[in-house]
Design goal:
Number of domains: 2
Radius of gyration: 22 Å
CATH class of the largest domain: Alpha Beta
Distance between the termini: 6 Å
CATH architecture of the largest domain: 3-Layer(aba) Sandwich
Number of strands: 17
Oligomer: single chain
Number of helices: 12
CATH superfamily of the largest domain: Gcn5-related N-acetyltransferase (GNAT)
CATH topology of the largest domain: Aminopeptidase
Strand content: 15-25%
Helix content: 25-40%
Largest sheet: 8 strands, mixed
């Protein structure tokens, strides 16, 4: 029996009974049939039902007033249940929803909803007012919420962002699934994946023309960073810390009691390997709950080791046997070249450089890191389809005990790979991550759905 959740979040057992009661009172005001929005005139995404989940994405300007009020009530109620809000402050202020002042007319609202039109999962993509005609580096531009919390000193470790038009930078926030639904609720476990997939596909539509070019925000890196990596989205992140907010800030518990860190990601880092990953996630979600869960778990063994181009190394580390260029450079091409040359010359004990042609098989019991080309991964056959996922450039297959085994890796194109054991691969990864101050554990995504026998 598998008991792994998409996003463990914060257990309701850690929230007082009075807070739970307040949250449910607030959530009583979140009643609205959001299924009606799939037919809205300005809807950006209207995904029909797939195994109990529908997805709709639209701007604030397309929301009827009752829908917006229900969303703001849902946001407040769910954050009360996660322990992020100061419950006593909410009670004293007699709040029954978040303030409409937090919402701009162009903000996006992404909702995964069930067959009755109730929210299963929600996220917003937003901007502060007045960022038009300014660059990210402009001293007079309005601050984004993540900057209000974490300051701006962390941005000194970024490159290539200062001249980006601020109107193309959006904060991703309020990602939360319904905390009231149990772990065996198939729809609520599937919903975050469906919602995340719809959002990342939306921002890459040609019609968007780079409108949502850069994502910023803050998150719990122990969970959210792994989720980004699961979708093969490279993110620049920083040391997580506790933040003391000013007196009266109702979100103070979120930052005082939970580690958070700012992050930034750019669509310029999305490549063919990323798109292939999204196709593989979509394919897994096309199956029923049990088989989808099996495939989503197995996909955790195909991991992206690409770094964000916005990063730059901030620490020197013991490089061990590895070329310094392979540790301290964010360029996938440069790192690939350095690692391939070192392995081919026998300078990396335990590492082997190899090449395979179409139809040839790479070993499935070792780490196989593709530097270019394309491999296909297969798991045990089910419903006459054993294909699991694709391994493009800068993606590695890392077999993990306890997950559905990958039984074959077949080259679909000419491909160069590096092969090693898991310990050596993780040693390289850990040294590289220390250069960029992100967690070694973040390599492996944990986006899964629960299933039971």
């Amino acid at each position: 029996m598998l008991r792994r959740a998409f996003n463990r979040g914060h257990p309701l057992s850690g929230v007082s009974a009075s807070t739970r009661e307040l949250a449910h009172q607030v959530l009583d005001g979140a009643t609205f049939d959001f299924g009606r929005l799939l037919r809205a005139a300005n809807v950006l995404v209207a995904q029909p039902d797939r195994h109990g989940v529908r997805v709709v994405v639209l701007p604030t300007s397309a929301l009827p007033e009752p829908a917006l009020r229900a969303i703001l009530a849902w946001r407040l109620g769910q954050y009360l249940l996660t322990g992020f809000y100061d419950a006593e402050g909410v009670r004293r202020a007699s709040l029954r929803g978040e303030s409409q002042e937090l919402v701009g007319p162009d903000d996006l609202h992404a909702l995964a909803i069930d067959h009755a039109g109730a929210i299963l999962c929600y996220a917003t993509v937003k901007q502060p007012h007045g960022v038009e005609s300014r660059t990210w580096g402009a001293a007079d531009r309005p601050k984004y919420p993540c900057e209000e919390v974490h300051g701006v000193a962390w941005q000194a470790h970024l490159v290539g962002l200062l001249d980006t038009p601020a109107e193309h930078v959006w904060e991703w926030a309020r990602f939360c699934k319904d905390q009231r639904r149990g772990r065996l609720d198939a729809a609520v476990q599937r919903a975050p994946l469906e919602l995340a997939l719809a959002l990342v596909q939306l921002v890459q539509r040609p019609a968007a023309a780079g409108h949502w070019q850069v994502a910023v925000g803050d998150f719990d890196p122990a969970v959210a960073l792994r989720n980004l990596r699961y979708f093969f989205i490279a993110a620049a992140t920083f040391t997580p810390h506790y933040v003391a907010r000013p007196e009266g800030d109702l979100l103070a518990p979120r930052y005082a009691q939970h580690l958070t860190a700012p992050f930034v990601a750019t669509t310029a880092d999305i490549d063919d390997a990323t798109y292939l990953r999204w196709v593989d996630i979509e394919f897994a979600l096309s199956f029923g709950h049990r088989e989808a869960a099996r495939r989503l778990l197995a996909l955790r063994q195909l991991v992206s080791v690409k770094e964000s181009r916005l990063k730059r190394p901030i620490a020197s580390v013991d490089r061990g046997p590895y070329p310094r260029l392979a540790l301290e450079n964010a360029s996938a091409q440069d790192v690939s070249a350095a690692m391939w040359a070192a392995a081919a010359e026998g300078q990396l004990p335990g590492w082997q450089a190899a090449a395979f042609g179409p139809g040839e098989y790479a070993p499935a019991d070792r780490v196989v890191w593709s530097l270019d080309g394309y491999l296909q991964a297969f798991i045990g056959r089910h419903e006459d389809n054993g294909y699991l996922g694709g391994i493009g450039a800068w993606v590695a297959c890392v077999p993990q005990p306890g997950l559905p085994p990958i039984i074959a890796l077949r080259a679909a194109t000419p491909v160069r790979v590096l092969m090693t054991d898991r310990a050596s691969f993780e040693d390289f990864w850990a040294r590289r991550q220390r250069c960029f101050e992100t967690s070694t554990a973040s390599l492996y995504g944990e986006v899964t759905m629960e299933t039971s026998t």
